[in-house]
Amino acid sequence: ILNVEQSPQSLHVQEGDSTNFTCSFPSSNFYALHWYRWETAKSPEALFVMTLNGDEKKKGRISATLNTKEGYSYLYIKGSQPEDSATYLCALGGSEKLVFGKGTKLTVNP
Amino acid sequence: DAGITQSPRYKITETGRQVTLMCHQTWSHSYMFWYRQDLGHGLRLIYYSAAADITDKGEVPDGYVVSRSKTENFPLTLESATRSQTSVYFCASSESEVLSGNTIYFGEGSWLTVV
After folding, report:
1. Of the candidates B41, B42, B47, B43, the residue with the CA atom closest to the CA atom of residue B21
2. Do B109 and A43 touch (CB under 8 A)?
3. Residue from A80, A25, A20, A81 nearest A53 by CA
4. Residue A22's closest CA among A35, A38, A40, A31?
5. Which residues does chain A have within 8 Å of residue B106's beta carbon, measured at their own beta carbons?
6. Is the pLDDT of residue A7 over 90?
7. pLDDT, tens digit, 9 for 90 and up, residues B94-113
C-alpha cells in the first residue's frame, strides 16, 4: 500500500499571511500527484494534477510544486483569506486509483 | 450539468440492517470509486470500478458489496451495518486511469450513522 504523508496536520494563520504545506510520497514508480481542497459538507474540489518532476502549477493565490526524485510536493497559499479555510488533500495516482494523505486542515483567522 | 450525485445524503440506520448508498454520474466516466472519510484516516478507498461489470477491492472492502451493471451507476451496499461503518461516504468518478493524470470528481458525500 502506498504511503502518502502530509504535514502539518493542522495550521492556523492570520488573514494576509502566506503559508505552505507538504505532501511526501514514495519516489519510485511515480505516476501523478493530485491536490484537492475540501470544505466540510462539500465535495472535495480538484486543484492541481502534476505528472512531471519540476512541475509548477498556479491557480490564483494557490500554487504547487513537485519533486518526484525526492518524493515531495509543496502547496503554497499567498495572502491567505478566511475563505481559504479548508482541508487540503494530496493524493498519489498509482495504477488505477488514488491514495490520499490525511490532509492539512487550514484555518485562516480574520 | 448534473455531474455526480449521491443519495441519500444523510441516513441513520440500525446495526444489522442492510443499507445501500446510490451513486449516479452523467459524464459516462469509465472509472468510479467509493471512499470513506473518517477522522484521523483521511479518504480510504473501499471499492472501485474500471467499467461496467468490472469491480475491484480497495483498501477497506470488508463489509461492503458493490455492483456496476450500468456505466452511470455504482451503488455501495452495507450488507449488515455495524457501528464501525458510521462514516462519510464519497463516490467519485474519473474519465480514465488516474495514473495518466486524470482528475477524480467527487460527489457531495453521504453521511451514514449506524446506531
Report:
1. B47
2. yes
3. A25
4. A35
5. 43-45
6. yes
7. 988 766 678 889 999 999 99
